[in-house]
Amino acid sequence: MLSKEQMLQALTSLGFRPNEAQVYLTVLELKEALPGTVARRSKLKRSTIYLLLEGLEQKGLLQKVRKNGNIVFKAGSPESFIAQEQKKSEVLQSSLKALSFSLPKLFATYAAELCPSEITIFKGEKGVEKILSELGRDRKMLLSWDENGKRQKGIIGVFNIYRDKVAIVSLKDELGVLIQNEHIAKAQRAVFENIG
User: Fold this and answer.
1) Which residues pair with 73 in a beta bridge?
2) CA–CA distance from 161 to each of 45, 49, 125 (Å)?
C-alpha cells in the first residue's frame, strides 16, 4: 500500500497543486468532513481550506452537502478524476492531430523565403498513384500517421514525412498534397518523434 507521502506525490504528478492534493486526500481519508476538521488535519489555514474545498468541488472531486445544519464535504471517487484526465488527454490528442494537419500550411507561410519550397497538388486516381509511387520508393525513411492519428514507420499513411517532403494523401477524395521544404519536413519529423 502506498504511504500518504507517495499518494500526495501521485496526485501532484496528475496535476493537483500540493495543497489541493493534501485537502483531497484528507477528505478522502475522512469520507466526509467539516472545513474546520480538514484545516486541522491538513495543517492548512482555514481561509485557504475554504478556497481549496470550493475549487475541488467545482472540479467534481468533492461534494458539498448540508448535514445537521452544517456544510460537510464528501470525497468523490478517484475514478471521476481519472475520467476527467482521460477526457483532457483525448482533447489534447485531438488538438495535436488537428495541429499536425495545419502545421504544413503554417510552416509553408513561415519558411517561404527561408528555403526553396514547392507545393504540388495531385488530383484524381492517376495523381494519387503518382504520389503513392513516390512514397513507396522512400519507405525506409517514411514516417506517417494513419487516419486515426496512429504513428507508423515505413507505412504509407494519410500524413507522411520523408526526406525534405511532407505528403498528405486522401485515397477517399483521390487527392494528394506534396510539400517540399526542408524546414517543414524537419519540424514535422520533430512532432512525430516527440508525440507519445
Assistant:
1) 33, 64
2) 55, 51, 21
